[in-house]
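Q: What structure does this chain adopt?
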Amino acid sequence: MLTMEEQNYLTALREIEGRSLRDIAAHTGYHFNTVKKYADKEDWNMEYRPRKQRTSGLDPLKPIIDEWIREDQKRKRKHRRTAIKIYHDLKGDDELSGLLTVGKQTVTNYVSKRKKELAVTPYSTAMYTLHAMCEGQVDFGEALVHCVI
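A:
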């Protein structure tokens, strides 16, 4: 690939001086095809080709894994499945092992990401209200409050 200065020089020889491609190739020492490529180029922006969206080998199993993660969220923390346990459960099941075409790390990465997305924050249902001075609302228990007016 030529530098921008060299590319501009080839273009200038063609546009300004009106030289032929063969003459430019002989003058500069570049191959004819290289001279043609850069002398005839109008758009200097790099061509952008978007990446192809590939399907994951885990796609058929994602609903099952999501269901297992939701079930595990209802269990105590010590009784939940780890990502490795989910992988071994998928591999050990006769029906699901045929669909499993990915490795352990792919399953682990997906489970980690989904656990974070499906995590329920403990304070997401808290309701905050404003009360007048010396008044309060308590859900349970007793408290002694001294108000100074």
